[in-house]
Amino acid sequence: MNETIVCVVGNVATPPVYRELPSGPSARFRLAATARYWDREKGVWTDGHTNFFTVWANRQLAVNVAASVEVGQPLLIQGRLKVRTEVRDGQQQWASADIDAMAIGHDLSRGTAVFHRAARSEPAATAARPEPNWETPPPAAAQDGTAVPPAEQEPAAVT
Fold it and tell me: What ranges does the record list as Low complexity composition bias (predicted)?
């Protein structure tokens, strides 16, 4: 598929919103990514334009985001970029950039973090199905008690 995969470094701008949906857990938050450049004339770092992205996380990633991410934290986001444009109020063009996150992590160049492995949730138990019998049945005995050659035996039914 022709998807645009991006890696964005920025700060969390809004608190994560967590929801349990029929398709599974989902979380979203806004990420602000500001370009910085060295201004040679002033001899200082200067903030450039700020881009805002809506980051979407699903399933276990959403659960972990809700437990780990707070406003102001520096994050690295890797995911699929989706840019949408709409016409609002009849003429105004509106655009949004969403990232369907595949991986989210704290930017360790700007602080420390402690990793805790999430406990895996067990899938719902389903009715147990019996294991099929894959063993070869013993040779059938003839009426007189002698073994029947394999070529003359009927094939065993597989369950």
Answer: 121-131, 147-159
